[in-house]
Amino acid sequence: MSIKWGIIGCGDVTEIKSGPAFNKVEGSKLQAVMRRDTAKAEDYAKRHNVPKFYSDAIELIEDPEVGAIYVATPPASHEQYTIAALKAGKPVYVEKPMAMSEEGCLRMIEASQKYSTKLTVAHYRRALPMFNKVKELIKEIGDIRFVSIQFLQPSKTELVASTEVNWRTNPEISGGGLFHDMAPHHIDLMLYFFGDPVKISGYSANQAKLSGADDIVSGELVFANDVICKALWCFNVSNEESKDLCEIVGAKGKVCFPFHGNFCQIITNGKTGTFNFIHPQHIQQPMIEQIIRYFNNDTDINPCDAGEGAKVARIMDIFTARRTAK
C-alpha cells in the first residue's frame, strides 16, 4: 500500500534533507505541502512535483487524499499540529525537538494513545549507517568508562540551515537557542547507545547576549554501570575554536566521531581504525524508509517512538533549568 504524505511546514529543512525522499521511497508519495505563505507553498509544490499545496495546516490534515503527516514547522507548533493530525487518525512523523518541553511531548503521546494513531520522532541519525557502525564499535572497547561531548560553534555556524528569519534563536518559537536545534540529535544518540540515564544534571547561560536564548549549556548524564557522559555545547566561540567531537572511552580503547561529520574511529592497542561514510543525498531517507514500513504495518518496530522524544526533551529541560531532576 502506498502512503500519501502531507508536509506541514515545507521550509528550507525539507528542500533536500527530507522532502524529496517521500517521493523516492517505495510505497510512498508526497501528495500535499503546506506553508503559511501561499506563493512559497505553490513554488515548493511545482519544483518538487507535488499535486497539492495549502496555506492552512488544518486544511491539509483534513484532505482525504493525505494519509500521513510530516510536521516540519518550527517547534512551537509541533504539538498543535501533531495532535490535530492524530485526532484525524493520520500517523505523524514529527521533527525534532519533538515539542517545546517534556510536558508537550507527553500530551502528544497521550493523543497518540487516545486516537490509536502512530507517532514517530525525526531522530534520523538512528537510521544512518555511520551511527549504527559506532554502536557496533562500542562493543569492541570493553566496559565503558565515560563519554565526552564537545560541541563548540560560532554564533552563525554553517551547520545550521539558513532561513529568512532566524527563528532558531527565538525561544518563543524554537524552545531555546541553537542548543535546542542541534543537541536533540546528540542526546538522542546517547540514549540509542546507552539506554535511559539514571541521573541528569546541567547548567546553561546566555554569555554573549546575542539573542534571548542561552548560548552555552553543560550537562552530565549517568547511565547504568556508572557510565558518565559529560557534555558541553557552546555557540559563541570563534571559527578557530569550532569543535564537533564525541569520545566514548572503554576499558580496552575508545571510539571517536563527529555528530555532523562522515567518519568514525576506533583506537585500541595503539592502533587507529577509521571508517568513512557517504551520507545519503536526502539524509532522512533511511529513517523515512523505516517509517514507511512501520506505518504500513510491515513491522512492529517504531524507528524512534515518541517516548524517546520525550526523554530527550526532559534532559534538555533539566540541562537548561526548566525543571528539577527527580
TrEMBL record:
Residues 3-123 form the Gfo/Idh/MocA-like oxidoreductase N-terminal domain. Residues 131-255 form the GFO/IDH/MocA-like oxidoreductase domain. InterPro entries: Gfo/Idh/MocA-like_OxRdtase_N (IPR000683), Gfo/Idh/MocA_Oxidoreductase (IPR052515), GFO_IDH_MocA-like_dom (IPR055170), NAD(P)-bd_dom_sf (IPR036291). Pfam families: GFO_IDH_MocA, GFO_IDH_MocA_C3. It comes from the Bacteria. PANTHER family: D-GLUCOSIDE 3-DEHYDROGENASE, UDP-N-ACETYL-2-AMINO-2-DEOXY-D-GLUCURONATE OXIDASE. This is Gfo/Idh/MocA family protein. It comes from Paradesertivirga mongoliensis.
